[in-house]
Amino acid sequence: MSKRAVVVIDLQNEYWPSGGLALENIERAAANAARVIAHGREAGDLIVNVRHEMPGAPVFVPGSEGAEINEVVAPGEGEPVITKNFPNSFRDTGLKDLLDEKGVEEVFVVGAMSHMCVDATVRAANDFGYKTVTIHDACATRDLEFNGATVPAAHVHTALMAAFEFAYGEVVATDDFIKR
């Protein structure tokens, strides 16, 4: 049995152009995530789907279309789906217990948003001792604003991936990941 897991973070309809929180390049990121997932399935890796819900918020409303995982990366038969209410996929969920139960030592992370839930989860996975690989072109984010300045999504994403590579694990492109 593989000691690896693909952790698919929040690739939910809310992030598509028809949702309430559209991300730049979400379709391309999801297509790459689907390739990573297919590769993981073929390799016998655990595929863990994480979905965000925000009761009482205008987005990620439990039971809404926006809170559903997008069909491009739909969970396969029997694949676990972890529901979370915080950016960190480990916080107040059974994710760590599941990974430990399955003997997972290495996690491959794809999903959204690079600057929020992917960030929190990659850092936590590393802190918990998992070897962490982020598939950068299978993640998406959006422009951010701070103190009157807009930071383009591409800059937000690049800064996060650089930080991951500096101290939180490997960062690779989908094609390079699949060639291994």
UniProtKB/TrEMBL annotation:
It comes from the Bacteria. Residues 5-146 form the Isochorismatase-like domain. Keywords: Hydrolase. One of its GO terms (molecular function) is hydrolase activity. InterPro entries: Isochorismatase-like_dom (IPR000868), Isochorismatase-like_hydrls (IPR050272), Isochorismatase-like_sf (IPR036380). The keyword Transmembrane does not apply. Gene3D superfamilies: Isochorismatase-like. SUPFAM superfamilies: Isochorismatase-like hydrolases. It is an enzyme of class 3 (hydrolase). Pfam families: Isochorismatase (PF00857). Its EC number is 3.5.2.19. This is Streptothricin hydrolase. The gene is sttH.
